[in-house]
Amino acid sequence: MRSVIIGTGSYLPEHIQTNDEVERGTGDYSRSGKGEALDAFVRRVHGGITRHRVAPGESTSDMATQAARIAIADAELSCGDVDLIVLATFTSDYKLPQAGGIVQANMGSKAKFIQVDAACSGFIDGMMVAHSLMESQGYETAVVIGADTTSCVLDPGKYLPLTVFGDGAGAAVVRREKDLDDYGVQSFSAGSDGHLGDYVWAPAGGSKMPCSQEVLDQGLQYLRFKFSEINPWAVQRMTQCTREALARAGIGLQDVDWVVPHQASSTLVMEVARQLELPPEMFVLTYPDTGNTSAASIPIALDRANRRGDFADRDWVVMPAVGAGMAWNAMTYRWYDYRNRRPPARPAVEPTTGGE
User: Fold this and answer.
1) Residue 329 falls in the annotated catalytic set
2) pTM summary value
C-alpha cells in the first residue's frame, strides 16, 4: 500500500499587490535611504514581483476550502469520499474553533479533521500526519491542505516582510492504493531547532503576553524576523533534508526529475539549487508572483506544475521545506500519472424503446 496523490488544487486571492503598491503604502523604505526604487531593490534582493492579498472578510478557512474543493474535483471525487482532512496553518481564523473544522463544515463533510500548527514546513508536516494515520488507522482518502493569511500578521509599516509574504492555499488529495509500491510517498526527512525560535517571532497575542491595548500600540502582535540569520540556516537545512530524504528512498540527486521547494524566496531557492549542483530549471518556482505563502507554498507550486503537465509517470519529485520554529522537512515522491491511468468513463446507456 502506498499513499498516492490523485488530485491537486490551489487558490490565490483576487487582489494582486505589486512592489509599487507596497512602497506607496509605507514610508519605511523611503526612510531607509536605499537609493533605488523598492521594486528594483526587491527584485534584486529576493526576487519578489507580486503577491496576493485576501479581500476584506476573506480568511484562511475560505482559501483552504476553495483549494480543497478544486483538488477533490481534480481527483473526480466528492467531498463525501474524503475521510480525513489535515490542514496546516499558523493563521487560523480564530483561536477556536479551528480553521480545519470550519473547512470540514464548509465542505459538508463528516471526515476527521486535524489541524497542524505549523508555518512554512506545514504542508510536509501535514503529509507526514496523513500518511501515518492512513497506515496506522485505516483512513482511505485524505485531503492535505496548506493555507495561510500571512498578511494578517505582518506589520503594515515594514516594507521587507510585506514584499516577501503572500496569502494563498494549496491542497492534495491522497489515497491509499494497492499494488502501487513503486509510486507515491517514498520517504520523509524532518527535524527542528527549537532554540532558534526567535528567528521568526510574534512577541504577543499568545498565552505568554495576551493581546491588550499596550500590545496593539507597540505592534507586538506582528511577526519579527532575523532575515540575516534565517537565510544561511534555511539553505543549509533545505540541502540537508533533501539529501537525507533521497537517501532514505534509496536514490541520489542524479535520479531526481523535479524539486518542488518551499518558496522562501527566489534567491534562496536558487542558492539551494547551486548547493545541490542541480539545474535551476528542475526547480518549480512560483515565488516571483506568489511570494512566500507559508504552508501553502509547496502545494501551490505542486498544483501549478501538475496542471502544466510537467510531471511524467514515474518521475522522482522531492519537496524540501524550512520554516518557523525553526523546522525543516522533505518528502520524496514517485509521481503517479493519475489522470491518464484512470479507467475510461463508461458510455451512457441510451434508454431503450419498444421493439419495432
Assistant:
1) no
2) 0.93
